[in-house]
Amino acid sequence: MDRAEDTRWLPLPPRPWWTLWLSAFVAWTAYGLLYCYQVMSMAEDMGKHYAWSDVLRINLIGMWGWVPLTVALFWLVSRVPIRRGSVARSCTILMTAAFAVVVLRSVYIYTLDPWVGWYDTPPDFWSDVMPTSLNNNVLISWIVIGLAHALLFSDQARAQERRAAELQGLLAQARLDAIAAQLNPHFLFNALNSIAELVHHDADRADRMLVGLSALLRRSLDSSRLQWVSLREELELLAQYLEIEKVRLGARMQVQWNVAEECLDEAVPPQLLQPLVENAVVHAIARRIRPGSVRIGAGLVGAALWLDVEDDGADGLPDVEGHGIGLANTRARLHVLYGDEAVLSIEATANGGTRVGLRLPRRHAIPASTRDRPARDLRFDEVRVP
Questions:
Q1: Which of 23, 153, 161, 245 suits 76 as a labelling partner, its CA being 20 to 30 A distant?
Q2: Which of 146, 149, 148, 139 is nearest to 105 (CA)?
């Protein structure tokens, strides 16, 4: 199996090779110093005396010879790791590498022995150095190969976790985009239908509605590129939507704002309230002959931001399956962004209307910028929290 076809083997971020050289040098030096200490302790117990300089020279030079070999083995493991589908090939290559280490260590010891003094008398390469190297270095080579695999698998596990997190974020964004793609055309279709009805018998109202729709769409496009907006901006967008509906419905629709000023900078998902208000307008106000009202409330209670949309015209609870695509999409968006921390509730009011309430955990504040201003029809009073 080719590595590109094995999804478990993800591309690893480049690791600076100097860090591996430094780590190998430090590790073998520490091991050499520990070995020297053991040699000196054993010599003292046996009544022998060795000079520290001789012990350090003999052992550290021997250990430092492992530094380039360790780096080479780590590099080789990164190229041909032992994994499913290539066990025989990888083991053959690594066994050959381990034998090559034995030979290289033998050459290293045999070449430097006249200056270092590992042997008391000049050794024979084939009868002295090679057998000793074979006994000592095969096991060490496979220990190094095992450590290289452990590092590789650890890097792969972190890469998989990182990739999983990235895919989770992409999936969440894709779900949000899909939901938004349902929200915007739904509202646009209704608005254009209203303009088409008005243009034949009230051109002035149709013109005002078209201008308002243009401004609303421009602002909607700006906010759709963001994951969070301030509640102030969300309410301004909502006020523009309601102005369009007022042109269509006239005196039949009244809007009441019940918003606490201290929550205006709280972060909320863009276009969160518009589908809820649209539900109230379409399924309650627009179907009535007598005037009806839509009330929008917002306030802070502890660590939660409360939002509610209430109408006084629906007969009982809305049919979420039949008419409530806005409610269903809102619920889906809240689950993607907040998980189980957000709550959406629907209840019938005493006057036959419907109240939709949202309880959102407070994320962060988005202070008003120089372009932020209260929408023209907004009146920020004390909030009534459901």
A1: 161
A2: 139
Q: What is the structure's pLDDT at 377? A: 40
CATH of region 199-361, choose from 1.10.3210.10, 3.40.190.10, 3.30.565.10, 3.40.50.150: 3.30.565.10
Q: Calculate the alpha carbon distances from 292 to 18, 178, 211, 325, 378 in Å.
A: 74, 33, 25, 22, 18
What order of strands is seen across the sheet that includes strand 292-301? 253-259, 292-301, 304-311, 354-361, 343-348
DSSP character at residue 316? S
* Regions of the chain where pLDDT drops below 50: 1-12, 182-183, 315-323, 370-386
**Model pLDDT, residue 363:** 76
Where are the chain's structural domains? 3-166, 199-361
**pLDDT value at residue 223:** 61
pLDDT at 321: 42
228 C-beta neighbours (distance < 10 Å), count: 16
d(CA 246, CA 252): 8
The count of C-alpha atoms lying within 13 angstroms of the C-alpha of 238, restricted to the half-sphere facing its C-beta, is 31
For residue 159, the Cα-to-chain-centroid distance in whole angstroms is 13
- DSSP string for residues in 276-298: HHHHHIIIIITT-SS-EEEEEEE
CA gap 49, 133 in Å, rounded: 27
What is residue 11's predicted lDDT score, i.e. its pLDDT? 45
Cα-based distances in Å from 38 to 26, 55, 60, 145? 18, 11, 13, 26
- What lies within 8 Å, CB to CB, of 204 at 6+ separation is none
CB 252 within 8 A of CB 288: yes
The pTM of this model reads 0.50
Judged on CB neighbours under 10 Å (0-12, 13-18, 19+), 380 is middle
Which pLDDT does position 154 carry in this prediction? 87
Orientation of helix 52-64 relative to helix 17-45, angle to 10°:
150
Dihedrals φ, ψ of 365, to 5°? -95, 145
Enumerate residues 6+ apart whose C-beta is below 8 A from 304: 359, 360, 361, 362
